[in-house]
Amino acid sequence: MLVLRPGDSPGAPGAWPPERGLLKRRGLADLLTRILSAIVLMAAALASVWQGGLVFDLVWLCAALAVGCEWQNLIAARYPRLRIFLAILGLVLGAFFLGKAWLGTACTIVGTCGLAAALAADPGRRIWALGGIVYAGLLLFALGALHGSEGYGVRSIVWLFAIVWGTDVFAYFGGRLIGGAKLWPNVSPSKTWSGTLIGVFSGAILGMAAGGYGLVFPAQAPLFILSLSIAAISQAGDMFESWVKRRFGAKDASGLIPGHGGFMDRLDGFIAAAAFAALVGAARGGTSVAAGLFEWR
Hints:
Blueprint: H1 18-51, H2 53-74, H3 80-99, H4 103-120, H5 126-147, H6 153-178, E1 182-184, E2 188-192, H7 193-211, H8 217-247, H9 263-284, H10 291-294
Antiparallel strand pairs: 1-2
C-alpha cells in the first residue's frame, strides 16, 4: 500500500511505502530484543550451573515459581491470588524438602497444594489448576535429580542446555530460511516441518558435542539416539505449551521477558526435555539418575 504525501498522486514519483520500511525496522528491533533477552537468560542459566549449590537451587526455584504463577494467571479461573499463593507455597516447600532428599515429602506437599488450588478453581478448570503446579514442579524435581547426580550432574544440565537451545535456535532460523509446510498451524502458525526437523537434528549433534566427550564409541551411539529423542521431546513440549495458550486465548504466557513473552514460553521445551531425561535416567538405574543417561555398555 502506498502512502502519499500531501499533493502526491497515486502514480507520482514522490509516493512512498513507509509501512514496508517500518515493518522491516520493527522486525529487526524485535529480533534484537529477542537476542538480548536470550543472552541474559542463557548467562543466568550457565552461571547457576557454574556456581552450583544454593545459587543453582534459587535460580531454578525462581524459574519454577514464574512458570507456576503464569500458568495460574493464564487459565483465568476464580480466586487467582489464592491459587498463585498455593503454587508458591507448594513449590517453595517442595524445593526445601527436595534439597534435604525427602522426595516423598516434597511430592506430597506439591500434590496437596495442587489439589487445594484445584478446589479453589472453577469446576471446569480444576484439572488445569492442579496441572499448573505439577507442571512447574516437574522443572524442580527433574533438575534436582539430574544436577544432584554425583559425577554427572553438571554434564547432564549442560547437555540439556545444548540440546534444547540448539533445537530452538536452528528450528527458528531453519524455518525462516526454508519455510514450507506448517507443522500444526492451528496451534503454532509459525512452526514449520523444515525448521522442526533441522532443529531436532542440530540439537542432537550439539548434545553429543556437549555430553559425549570422554565416552567410547559404543556409548556414543545410544547417547546420540537419546539426544535426538530429547530434542524431539523439547519441540513437543513447545507445541504443548502453545496448545495450552490457544486453549485459553493467549498469545504469550506473560510479558515478563522482552521479546519472548513469559517464562513458560521460554522453558516449555526445557521442562519437557528435563522431565523425560530424568525419567529415562531413573528407569535405567545405575549409580545416579544422570549416570543412567551417560553410562552405556
